[in-house]
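User: I'm preparing a small set of examples for a lab meeting where we compare how different chains pack in three dimensions. I only have the primary sequence for this one, and I'd like the structure in token form so I can line it up with the others. Please keep the answer compact; I'll paste it straight into my notes.
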Amino acid sequence: MHKNRYSICVALLIGLTGLLFFQSATAIAQTKNSSIVTVLNIQGAIGPAVQDYVLHGIKESEKLQAKAIVLTMDTPGGLDTSMRGIIKSILHSPVPVISFVYPSGARAASAGTYILYASHIAAMTPGTNLGAATPVSIVSPEKSDEKNKKENKENASTLKAINDAKAYIRSLAQLRNRNEQWAVTAVTKADSLSATEALKLNVINFVAPSISELLKETNGKIVSINNVPTTINTADATLLHIQPNWRNKILTIMTDPSVAYILLMLGVYGLFFEFMNPGYVAPGVVGAISLLMASYAFQLLPINYAGFTLIVLGIIFMVAESFLPSYGALGLGGIVGFLIGSFLLFDTEAPEFTLPWQLISGVTITTGLFMIGLVQLILRSRFKPVVSGVETMIGKVGIIEKDTDHFWVLINGGRWKATSKDALFDKQTVTIMRVDGLTLIVKAIDHK
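Assistant: Understood. Below is the structure token output for the 448-residue chain.
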């Protein structure tokens, strides 16, 4: 009976294993036979998190043997280092990358224009625009007209940055056989184009209302993949949207300048509390973790180290105010240094990667009030009477006890060795003047 049950269980297990294997094999076969096109989405400012997301998406598309990658964009621009990292990923991608300014009303400004030029296929949907590829830290709106250009000569670093940007976008235009002249104009004059104008000027390859229509247009087109002519095959393709993973989401939060700034302050406050109150542990742990996270974020963001140094120096001055009687000079200097350093912290003019003045003001005021409150507490504690330790015995009255060789004082429930310049005798009343190790220096109150 037991053998029959055992045989039935084994048979069922073998049958179930075979069914699962068959389903897995069928799914794999269907995947290989189907045409997959992955879709990545750049939404908002381009920074380290977006760069990591695009790199991950290209690698995942390669594993899935995707026929193409559609990179939808709606971006005002972003960091130059992140943009160049994305472009490197596109140029080395084994899968054709189709950049698509989508949906209607979107834009590919500044860094987005460079990415469009670098892609194997560039496309836009009606009602979108691209351009304004001048580095934002170079030309401000007040100096963009011809009169101001004559009055304000560009310095060597400005010319170097502009020439570098021109050469970079020109090389991308030459690589993809797109309009080189307009690319330079987009950098030097911050020119912009609509989708229709971009198509006429050979800045993009297609104008399409949707991703499905775009894939129909690109099907059969020949592009160069690592210097090898490749035909794009997107017929009957299945779209697979690749979403940011948990690492991208955490990186997005951490590399937000406001979050990184707050993490820095939490780290400083946490460690400060731990040093002031050793043994609490929690403030030190939170402070150390916050400081490490802020350091990692600053490593990825464009940090002005002069601003960072001013912040640290300002904090040191404010802390020193708590211990040195400078009558507010150190504290005021620390607040000023902290404020200036906060405004200079991020070395970019891109609005998406600068600290809002409201946050800087709030943190500065909070830090100042915190330091003022701390100074008041320390000053109050200096004038409070001592409530613990041997210092509490000073000024108290005790009774002398004499043995064969020594004089002793009974005080606070303890028996202390006593010495004095005055003559001492048994049962004498004395006042404790000071403590020298384990000996009390006393003064006689009454004499025989």
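A couple of notes for your slides: Confidence is low (pLDDT under 50) at residues 24-33, 137-154. The radius of gyration is 37 Å.

User: Perfect, thanks.
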